[in-house]
């Protein structure tokens, strides 16, 4: 009888603790959950799944004490000396850099299809007087340089990147593969990539922005920053913050497992004046006006970072993930109109290019067809430049989810066929 009573008491205590945790987390995250789902129309099962996923992600990210649990597990994994983390969520190389994993990355027979879709996008842009640039950021994995324990399955998209760049070049599409730029003499590997983040460093993003600005100058025959006061090295305060960086990958493994790293920020000396318009998932709009630190950069994200970081310092540049945002340079209304199809790789790049442009209008690259039919949006707007940047680890059909029917028709008219999968003969 006492045994059963102890079980009942334990069960009641456990249930009470869980209910208190649930209530506390709902209290902390309730407003965010309401904001994410408010105004969302439910017309299909997929809509319900999307709402559930949004609520789950918000609860997980804001879970009280979440990092404490992560760090406890992190310490155990470190003591065990494991080079893979949480069932191969990430793997760690001999230089202590985290890499995403992939057990098999086969030949993609759709590369030609992707190129045709981008070509049609280019023709649409050029018909309205604009120019298209296709960009791929660099990857951390480097054959010959990245050393892993035998059998660790780090993702290596080098072959896919090379194949895609080749076929786009064959169709006379302007491309920049930043794997050919980084690392370099000015920015060696250790300064081009974070150990704990998948993206390039802020100095690498700045160098990439300058290369894109040069391309725009050559293409338009203009000078955007002749004295270097807007995007030159002297236009920024270069500040290195020791042990302030724990990237999005490191936040999942914990600092006990991977350690903290330094973060070098480039803070613009000229604060400028901007309007930042963001479209939220629920259809609402948020507008912020002010200087670059009011709108596009959150210095406090870095400078007020706790000893145990709870977010990546990288997110100081263009904080938040919005399906669609528009940056207006209020000091340069007549400047270049730029449209970007991008993701987080380009958040700091967008900030660095903002002083050179009048408007930068951008949508999230893997979500473009969930917000608008991108074809209609581009065809009904006039842009000087359209820049398409994709995640180098996500070269797939979802990334090129536009002009699908038009591409099929053109391939049939030209008698083109997809390259067969050499591994299967199909």
What brief labels describe this structure?
single chain; 426 residues; alpha/beta; eight-stranded mixed β-sheet; three-stranded antiparallel β-sheet; 15 helices; 13 strands; 17% strand; globular
Question: Mind explaining what this structure looks like?
Answer:
The protein is of the alpha/beta class. It has 2 domains: 3-64, no CATH class; 92-414, no CATH class. The chain has helices at residues 2-37, 45-61, 66-79, 111-127, 158-170, 189-192, 202-220, 248-253, 255-258, 292-295, 299-303, 347-353, 368-371, 374-379, 404-414; strands at 84-85, 90-92, 98-100, 131-136, 175-177, 236-245, 261-268, 274-279, 285-290, 324-329, 336-342, 357-364, 385-389. The strands form 3 sheets. An 8-stranded mixed β-sheet has the order 5-4-13-11-12-10-8-9, with helices on both faces. Helix 1 crosses helix 2, helix 4 crosses helix 5 (158-170) and helix 7 (202-220) packs across helix 12 (347-353). It starts with a helix and ends in a 12-residue tail after the last helix.
Tell me, rounded to a whole number, the average pLDDT. Answer: 84
State the strand order across the main sheet.
Answer: 5-4-13-11-12-10-8-9
Task: Tell me the total number of β-strands.
Answer: 13
Which percent range fits the helix content? 25-40%
- Whole-angstrom Rg: 24 Å
Beta-strand content bin = 15-25%
Query: Biggest sheet: strands, sense, closure?
Result: 8 strands, mixed
Write down the secondary-structure element order: HHHEEEHEHEHHEHHEEEHHEEHEHHEH
Count of folded domains: 2
The coarse overall form would be: globular
Number of DSSP helices? 15
Q: Any low-confidence stretches, pLDDT <50, length ≥5?
A: 47-55, 420-426
What structural class is derived from the secondary structure elements? alpha/beta
End-to-end separation in angstroms reads 68 Å
């Amino acid at each position: 009888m006492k045994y059963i009573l102890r079980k009942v008491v334990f069960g009641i205590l456990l249930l009470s603790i869980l209910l208190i945790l649930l209530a506390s987390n709902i209290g902390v995250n309730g407003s965010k959950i309401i904001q994410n789902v408010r105004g969302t129309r439910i017309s299909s099962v997929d809509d319900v799944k999307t709402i559930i996923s949004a609520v789950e992600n918000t609860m997980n990210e804001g879970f009280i004490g979440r990092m404490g649990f992560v760090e406890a597990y992190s310490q155990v994994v470190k003591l065990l000396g494991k080079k893979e983390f949480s069932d191969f969520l990430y793997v760690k190389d001999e230089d202590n850099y985290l890499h995403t994993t992939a057990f098999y990355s086969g030949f993609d027979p759709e590369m030609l299809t992707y190129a045709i879709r981008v070509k049609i996008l280019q023709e649409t842009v050029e018909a309205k007087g604009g120019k298209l640039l296709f960009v791929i950021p660099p990857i951390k994995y480097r054959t010959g340089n990245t050393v892993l324990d035998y059998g660790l399955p780090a993702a290596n998209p080098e072959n896919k990147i090379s194949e895609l760049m080749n076929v786009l070049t064959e169709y006379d599409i302007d491309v920049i593969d930043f794997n050919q730029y980084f690392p370099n003499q000015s920015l060696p590997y250790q300064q081009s990539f974070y150990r704990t983040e998948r993206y390039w460093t802020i100095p690498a993003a700045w160098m990439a922005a300058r290369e894109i600005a040069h391309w725009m100058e050559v293409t338009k025959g203009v000078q955007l920053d002749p004295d270097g006061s807007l995007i030159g090295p002297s236009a920024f305060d270069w500040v290195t913050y020791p042990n302030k960086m724990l990237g999005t990958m490191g936040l999942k493994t914990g600092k006990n497992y991977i350690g903290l790293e330094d973060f070098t920020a480039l803070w613009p000396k000229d604060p400028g004046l901007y309007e930042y318009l963001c479209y939220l998932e629920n259809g609402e709009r948020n507008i912020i006006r002010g200087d670059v630190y009011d709108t596009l950069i959150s210095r406090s994200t870095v400078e007020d970072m706790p000893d145990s970081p709870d977010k990546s310092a990288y997110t100081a540049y263009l904080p938040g993930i919005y399906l669609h945002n528009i940056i207006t340079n209020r000091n340069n209304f007549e400047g270049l109109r730029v449209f970007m199809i991008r993701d987080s790789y380009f958040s700091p790049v967008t900030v660095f290019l903002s002083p050179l442009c009048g408007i930068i209008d951008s949508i999230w690259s893997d979500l473009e067809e969930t917000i608008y039919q991108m074809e209609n949006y581009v065809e009904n707007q006039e842009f000087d430049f359209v820049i398409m940047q994709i995640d180098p680890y996500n070269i797939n059909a979802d990334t090129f989810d536009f002009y699908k029917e038009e591409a099929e028709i053109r391939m049939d008219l030209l008698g083109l066929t997809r390259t067969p999968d050499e591994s299967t003969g199909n």
